[in-house]
């Protein structure tokens, strides 16, 4: 597929694949009892609304970035099981679709998913900063006084949230509440794995000029061994806040590597939260450039 082409919709049902779910960005199909096919489209969402047009190549870029992290996790944290099998296209995908889907799919092992989002924060921003300003706490935990916006925390913190149904907002919860939902032992495993993953990724990214302010992981549970398994996409600009290290300054919000340009445009043009909005070409271009830069810095390779 040429680089300037955009894949916003794809449907494999006519080819006999059964659809498991359709997210804001990804389409998920069942390959067999134990295997799912994740397809990352070029759709982009902001403020919980999907834009009418996409970001060319975003789906393959995010898939390749996720795959890069899964490789790194395999070598740096071999004790942690992940769902990743391969980015190769299954042979059952018919030839007329192979070009379109190349590079944007992952075959993953299917697991029962734990019903919490496992968020780690190394810097105080977003909903954590909002809560701290209001109440001096983050997810109900007391925090040191006098923190400033975007300040690096002395130690990264685990701030789980609920996994809301489509169209609803996730809700931040305490560790105790997370332990009630998924069990004390499982919660401890998820917390430990998430903090270790974050620290590994933070150091890796910092050496490449990117600060990972916070990130969200999802875990499944292996029914046979009762181990927690890392699933979903990992450490992409869709699941994390990446900041350029060279522009970092405490006491204000940061220019981020993801949808900042898009969010600012939506707000300033009065389109925030509106359905079916089309991004103008300059917004598409600037957003594409940001995703690309994050990819290139993190992987050390040129994007296409
Ligand atoms: P959003 O668009 O807000 O991200 P979403 O999270 O429902 O919505 P996707 O991210 O596209 O949509 O879909 C991923 C879904 O697949 C999530 O519900 C996630 O929990 C689930 N999932 C991820 N990995 C696995 C796996 N290995 N086995 C089973 N389900 C998985
Ligand atoms: Mg998701």
Automatic annotation (TrEMBL):
- UniProt cross-references to Pfam families, sorted A to Z: SAICAR_synt
Q: Which CDD domains match?
A: SAICAR_synt_Sc (cd01414)
- GO BP, sorted A to Z: 'de novo' IMP biosynthetic process; adenine biosynthetic process
Q: What is its EC number?
A: 6.3.2.6
Question: Which top EC class applies here?
Answer: ligase
Molecular-function GO term, any one: phosphoribosylaminoimidazolesuccinocarboxamide synthase activity
Give GO cellular component annotations, separated by semicolons. Answer: cytoplasm
Record PROSITE patterns: SAICAR_SYNTHETASE_1, SAICAR_SYNTHETASE_2
List keywords of the entry alphabetically.
ATP-binding, Ligase, Nucleotide-binding, Purine biosynthesis
Instruction: Using the record's annotation, list all stretches that form the SAICAR synthetase/ADE2 N-terminal domain.
Output: 20-277
- Record-linked Gene3D superfamilies: ATP-grasp fold, B domain, Phosphorylase Kinase, domain 1
Q: Which family does it belong to?
A: Belongs to the SAICAR synthetase family.
Q: What is this protein called?
A: Phosphoribosylaminoimidazole-succinocarboxamide synthase
